[in-house]
Amino acid sequence: MSDCLFCRIVAGAIPADKVIETGDTLAFRDIAPKAPTHVLVIPKEHHVDIAALAQAAPALAGQVLATVAAVADAEGLRESGFRVIFNTGEDGGQEVPHVHAHVVGGAAVGPMLA
Ligand code: 5GP
Ligand code: ZN
């Protein structure tokens, strides 16, 4: 079993509140939400960050973005708006080294990172 937290969620070894699952991607609620809606979108395949994913598997990066849009639709965020954040590396504040998009909304979340 992988020691990557999000690979373990993909494998079902750690429970998660799933929002959308496709063949290659998974969307689940953040365990410590920073907004009324806070969903993480990941590729099921392990890639460390968005730069690695985009270079190694650009089509899969596109699938992650398509799932981001599907989450926004499912959560009713398309009209009110939302933010998509890829924290990347140490200075970017990334804590889990399996690429994930944060989809946050449901309240005004501001134009800048907190
Ligand atoms: P990062 O700082 O790497 O961009 O974000 C990691 C996110 O993963 C954090 O917002 C954190 O709350 C979330 N997280 C950490 N552990 C778990 C977990 O076990 N389950 C879920 N659903 N989210 C988690
Ligand atoms: Zn992983």
Q: Any descriptors?
A:
114 residues; HIT family, subunit A; 27% helix; binds guanosine-5'-monophosphate; binds zinc ion
List the helices and strands and how they pair.
Elements: H1 5-11, E1 18-21, E2 25-29, E3 37-43, H2 50-56, H3 58-74, E4 82-85, E5 101-105
Antiparallel strand pairs: 1-2, 2-3, 3-5, 4-5
Helix pairs in contact: 2-3
Bound molecules: guanosine-5'-monophosphate and zinc ion (ZN).
Residues 2, 4, 6-7, 46, 98 line the site of zinc ion.
CATH architecture: 2-Layer Sandwich
Helical fraction equals: 25-40%
Spell the H/E element sequence: HEEEHHEE
The first-to-last residue Cα distance is 35 Å
Classify the fold: give the CATH topology: HIT family, subunit A
Say what oligomer this is: single chain
Q: What small ligands are held by the chains?
A: guanosine-5'-monophosphate, zinc ion
Query: Tell me, what's the shape?
Result: globular
What is the typical, i.e. mean, pLDDT? 95
Give start-end ranges of low-pLDDT stretches. none
CATH superfamily: HIT-like
Reading off the top of the CATH hierarchy, the class is best stated as Alpha Beta
Helix count? 3
Q: Profile the largest sheet.
A: 5 strands, antiparallel
